[in-house]
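Hey,
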Amino acid sequence: IVGLLCARVDVERAVLAPRVHYELDGIQAEPGVDESALRELERRGYAVTRWSERNVFFGGVHAVARDPRSGELHGAGDPRRGGAVAVA
């Protein structure tokens, strides 16, 4: 949602983007999260765990977005959950 609405990326890029999870002063991060940001969080006292690959721990989402100009639909399936897209 943040990627689609704030960063204005397409739906596939938003679904595939690396994720972070914050809980009890700890940060869990998938590969691809900005390393300098993770180091800054550690400097501020947060425990940061870096995952070696995408994982369903971070949830899974399948999404469809409609282009507001053309009305064309675009979809994305999350590989963390074995997602796929079919266009009919």
